[in-house]
Write a structure and sequence with these properties.
By secondary structure, the chain is an alpha/beta fold. The protein contains 19 helices and 14 strands. It folds into three domains: about 90 residues, 2-Layer Sandwich (Ribosomal Protein S5, domain 2), CATH 3.30.230; about 200 residues, Rossmann fold (3-Layer(aba) Sandwich); about 90 residues, no CATH class. The protein binds adenosine-5'-triphosphate, magnesium ion and zinc ion.
Length: about 450
């Protein structure tokens, strides 16, 4: 992961000092050094210390020497002793003295700037029962989600609240997330193991490199890698360049991305949950009766047509988000994120038990064929409506599998062992029937 990186200054200097017999070779044999050197010999912080230290531990290393400002970050990695040093001369003196432990004991990280964040909550969303249900299902089963609706109906608002109902990350997952942020040069003060899944929402004008990864000089991870173990939200998705949308296909398939540049090829993790939002047509009004919309049928089809195929094929949940009506404004407030998050947690546990010993963890990852055959196959009585829709050509087999996956998640949220006919019926209504065909 580290290339064209200044963190090799310090190891080179230590190697030179060893060659000059200033340092005993045995003293530094099993140590990893990371850091940039200033001309006066002081050691400066570098990007990517966390992933480098992770690799060092995996390679069996037990001691690492890092710049003082990177120490807090390096100490997030379990199983390694971190020596924080400020100056090359201090390091060489420490090696000469033969001291077991050296460096700055526990440098206090720089003060964290106070960021005032307005907490968002699902309770803020008025009405939109179907979209709320879809959001909960997406969180529970890891299903990708597509929200379609006119401007101002709350699509962006809903998507932003997905992060509030997703389960916390495990410690291992958190460290993966922090490793990516470390590569991007986030300062140590901002790195903490907080367990919140990342929520990354690149703008539609963002470059291919910013979204997928790359860069003209050094290769950097893109938004899809920053969204690893979390959510990638593409708002106004038809406005993204087709080439960008196309290149999401491979990471969606494999959970990782290969970024190639003239001199280097880098593999980054990119297992993210995709959430997309769109208006039904370029003017945004062409929904339902489409009052006021003057877009031609051709323009409408072309607008959403850019999403079809590879991208939408992977999206189990496609729901319409209609404009908020006055009657729903008067209705009771929706459930809070905390209440929904508890149900999501329960559904995750049910899935963990069901798919234990298989390559899958979540219903969204299970191939349709597995759900149609063998152990997980549902009885004819349960699938009767689905079978009929398939026979009549109202549902493709792919659409059938999507409905089944969502049906399992509905059952998990309700605490049932397997989906009922009603669960599948509900899953069927959660598909977007007309505007984006399955
Ligand atoms: N269902 C809703 N409940 C509460 N407030 C809403 C709802 N829908 C819209 N709003 C209000 O309208 C604003 C715009 O909503 P939002 O940005 O989510 O709409 P949108 O569907 O993403 O629209 P656009 O297609 O223009 O991006 C919100 O900030 C909120 O104040
Ligand atoms: Mg929006
Ligand atoms: Zn229109």
């Amino acid at each position: 992961m580290l290339c064209q990186n200044r963190s090799f200054d310090l190891p080179i200097a230590v190697a030179v000092a060893t060659a000059l017999k200033l340092v005993e070779p045995d003293r530094v044999r099993d140590l990893v050094h990371l850091g940039e050197l200033a001309l006066d010999g002081s050691i400066r912080a570098v990007n990517g210390v966390l992933p480098a230290v992770l690799s060092a531990v995996r390679a069996g290393c037990r001691d690492v020497v890092v710049p003082v400002d990177n120490a807090a970050e390096a100490r997030l990695v379990p199983g390694i002793r971190v020596h924080a040093v400020a100056h090359l001369a201090d390091l060489i003196a420490a090696y000469a003295s033969g001291a077991e432990s050296f460096g700055v004991a526990d440098p206090t990280p720089p003060q964290r700037p106070t960021v005032v964040r307005v907490p968002v909550d699902l309770a803020d969303v008025v009405g939109q029962e179907e979209a709320r249900m879809a959001l909960e299902l997406a969180a529970a089963g890891g299903h990708h989600l597509f929200l379609l609706g006119p401007p101002g109906s709350g699509k962006t608002m809903l998507a932003e609240r997905l992060a509030t109902i997703l389960p916390r990350l495990s410690r291992e997952q958190s460290i993966d997330v922090l490793a990516v942020r470390s590569l991007l040069g986030v300062t140590a003060a901002e790195l903490s193991v907080e367990g919140a899944p990342p929520f990354v929402a690149p703008h539609h004008t963002a470059t291919q490199a910013a979204i997928i990864g790359g860069g003209s000089r050094a290769v950097k991870p893109g938004a899809i890698t920053q969204a690893h173990h979390g959510v990638l939200f593409l708002d106004e998705v038809p406005e993204f360049k087709s080439s960008v949308l196309q290149s999401l296909r491979q990471p969606l398939e494999s959970g990782q991305v290969v970024v190639s540049r003239a001199r280097s090829t880098v593999l980054y993790p990119a297992r993210f949950q995709l959430v997309m939002a769109a208006n039904p047509c370029p003017c945004g009004l062409g929904y339902g009766k489409g009052v006021g919309c003057s877009c031609t049928p051709l323009a409408k089809r072309a607008y959403l047509g850019r999403l079809s195929g590879p991208l939408l094929d992977r999206v189990d949940l496609r729901v319409q988000v209609p404009a908020v009506t006055r009657s729903s404004l008067a209705g009771t407030a929706g459930e809070s994120s905390a209440v929904v998050a508890t149900r999501v947690q329960g559904a995750r546990q049910a899935q963990a038990q069901r798919w234990a010993g298989t390559p899958w963890e979540l219903n969204s990852q299970v191939p349709g064929s597995t759900l149609r055959r063998g152990r997980w196959r549902l009885s004819r009585a349960v699938t009767t409506d689905l079978d009929r829709a398939l026979d009549r050509g109202q549902l493709t087999l792919r659409g059938y599998d999507r409905v089944a996956r969502v049906g399992w998640t509905i059952a998990d949220l309700a605490g049932r062992d397997a989906p009922t006919r009603d669960d599948l019926g509900q899953a069927l209504t959660l598909r977007n029937h007309d505007a984006v065909a399955a």
